[in-house]
Amino acid sequence: MQIKTSSRLEGIGEYYFSQKLREIDTLNKEGKDILNLGIGSPDLPPHPEVIRVLQETAAQPNVHAYQSYKGSPVLRKAVSNWYKQWYAVELDPETEILPLIGSKEGIMHICMTYLDKGDEALIPDPGYPTYSSAVKLAGGTPVTYTLSAEHNWQPDLVALGKTDLSKVKLMWVNYPHMPTGQLPSVSFFEELIAFAKKHNLLICHDNPYSFILNEEPVSLLSVPGAKEVVLELNSLSKSSNMAGWRVGMLAASKERIEEVLRFKSNMDSGMFLPVQLAAAKALELGKDWYDSINTIYAQRREKVFELLSLLNCDYSKQQVGMFVWAAIPDSYTDGFALSDEVLYGASVFITPGGIFGEAGKKYIRVSLCGSVEKFEEAIRRIKTSVTK
Ligand SMILES: Cc1ncc(COP(=O)(O)O)c(C=O)c1O
């Protein structure tokens, strides 16, 4: 039977990684043994205490019912304490926190809550591809703002302020920035809040990487007056090694939380309570936890630097987060060409920067979610097979 998909899917392809993982799977079935250095899914386990809470609570008979749409009070309190301890941000656990089934779903919820046909949302180029898809699926129009190494991968707010922003309702920002690993400067965050107020738009800050290879996690909500204009997404996927658990959160004013909940409560029916209680435990972990994962990521990053140097790529050692972003040498037309050569020549998959937007075309991104041995093997293969 032929049936036409909805017009809202026009221009929305299958997610790049979903497609690429299938291709890698096919190559593996042909006996290739591809080393995947692409996707940012932590390979390390969560803290054992987190697993213990999940196991013990899941064994209880009274935890299997539907849960509150607003999330468990235990998890909301844990989020509030976590924001206070690490970001010096006060959030009312009753009204200013909304647990999410991963922060990715929050991107869609926010777009569905605020965008009508004709409304515009500013999105970063390069940036996480979901911002643009979610804006389009919600019926809005994504308008990219270009980031560049020359401007420290931060938007030029003066230039942006001179463009027609009359239809813009949302601006997506993400610092530490993925894919470039750029940290935000304090003055930039302050300017951003002033910009949002001046132009009457909401800033949606996506903040899943603030603990990875970064000693000073920062929330956009820590800027005075930010709550009036900021919705901040955060996640346990990367900082607690819980990507598959699907736990994230939205932090914002009571008014914004209620608005988003109007949409979200029609989409899902809460999260399994043992997952929420285990997530609350993860948020209580101290500096030792973050130090322990960062020690491992730092060792891996050294290997990734070595691999990138071998490919004659140029990179900043100041970047943070779960990836290394690198400019390709002039001998390749773009990151796709380099990625293909390494995939088909050395059976190593590296993400081409172009999937994050036009401005990422001359770059590649390597994920730190693999063992030192895996990177050593990738280096060995590239040394023997890739000549440029
Ligand atoms: C910038 C950015 N935002 C959001 C997400 C989604 O994270 P979550 O697992 O919380 O849905 C990712 C995942 O890779 C990401 O890179």
Automatic annotation (TrEMBL):
PROSITE patterns, A to Z: AA_TRANSFER_CLASS_1 (PS00105)
Keywords: Aminotransferase, Transferase
Cofactors required: pyridoxal 5'-phosphate
Cited SUPFAM superfamilies: PLP-dependent transferases (SSF53383)
EC number: 2.6.1.-
Chain ranges of the Aminotransferase class I/classII large domain: 32-382
A single MF term (Gene Ontology): transaminase activity
Entry superkingdom: Bacteria
CDD domains xref list: AAT_like
Family of this protein: Belongs to the class-I pyridoxal-phosphate-dependent aminotransferase family.
Name of the protein described by the UniProt record: Aminotransferase
Organism: Sediminibacterium goheungense
